[in-house]
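Cont'd.
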Amino acid sequence: MRYAFQVQYIGKNYAGSQIQLENGKEIDTPTIQGELEKALCKLTCGKSANNNKRQIKTYFSGRTDKGVNSIGQVVHFELEQMIVASKFVYSLNEILPDDISVSDLRVVDTKFHAQKSAKKRIYRYEFINRKYKNAFDGDLMRVKFDINLERMQKSLDYLLGEHDFSSFKSSGTLNPSKVCIIYKAECLKSGDKVIINIEGNRFLYNMVRTIVGTLLEIEGHNLPPEHMKEVLEAKDRRKAGQTVSPYGLTLMKVEY
Amino acid sequence: MRYAFQVQYIGKNYAGSQIQLENGKEIDTPTIQGELEKALCKLTCGKSANNNKRQIKTYFSGRTDKGVNSIGQVVHFELEQMIVASKFVYSLNEILPDDISVSDLRVVDTKFHAQKSAKKRIYRYEFINRKYKNAFDGDLMRVKFDINLERMQKSLDYLLGEHDFSSFKSSGTLNPSKVCIIYKAECLKSGDKVIINIEGNRFLYNMVRTIVGTLLEIEGHNLPPEHMKEVLEAKDRRKAGQTVSPYGLTLMKVEY
């Protein structure tokens, strides 16, 4: 039977979502996938389980980097035995570390693949826009100069539709195609927090964080929103802004 | 000149708000007051300052325990020199640890006293009401059984007005009077979070946390809301529920 569930995590204490290999061997560093597979095995493999071998393999909708959070990451895996969903989710959550949880377990078709079947990913980036520090800012980046939300929205509007996003990719991208479709890109304010919601069919490595870095360059240097269009059309990473901190980034939802 | 400001903090990493003395000597444990006085001295005492002596004494509206947070704690102190408020607050925040911040600095009358002049304190207690864990629950207590919000509100209604709250005080209370006036006591839900707002002229040691523990006893054992009245009238700490975790408690505001 193939199962899928949603996984929530705070990325701060992990080297990223995926188990990392070096010369075909796992690197001993905490990852979301590593913790999830360990917990799944504890629950289902029985006492004879060889803990050094990955007995239950999990497939993520996509990798998230060190420090990136998730509310709606989707993961699928296969199990031979039948399970009672509510009991299974409860027990798995009790085994998992405090900063990782699972929900919405369901049986899926064997053709379903968390990564390959995904049609849309929704990310959110949050940062603080305030001169002064506040004890409750947590790990969010703080931007001290005033953000012009209207201009920021105009900058984001240039990203809508199908484009080659080469300017916003970091060098690690494996997939040769740099074309993504952006369905939605909006910014809003909630108190001192600026929230940027971006929906797309796929995202390149560090793409959202580099888009935010470019938005901040426009705001910080009082550039016209058209600067975003120029960066996009240049297809040159050197034209875009910095890749901002991962702590404000959250994978909100994956649609199928 | 006497100044007052608001202080925000996350109580988790501190032994409480107040510097703790043992035989007249300060115990070497991190407190909000200790960090604040250190930072104030760094900013104003000059290089000749004796760091082992408390050169600027701060007065809090009231003490908060280890683990309790603040959004609106009010603190007053005296300084000989004139200061530029916005610059002073900015610099002080840069010196303070990430989980402590100050805001709203103003000059006050020399008759103003952060504790003695306070007329009303507003506290908030938050906990999670959900069977399953979620990675974003943080340090909030999780209650697994269903909360009946309507009954909880009825229980809270018995606290309104002037009462002897002996049943809800922990033994450490110094002030001999146990009479407090509660102006408001409401509960509401935001997603999976239950929020309890309580406003009163003063609060006894651990009073809010013991009120919440009693509410949970009523909910967990399906007692009638009148149980709150019985506990209140008994003036006996043994009749009340447990003192719940401090992590969900926040001092929201102090009114003068």
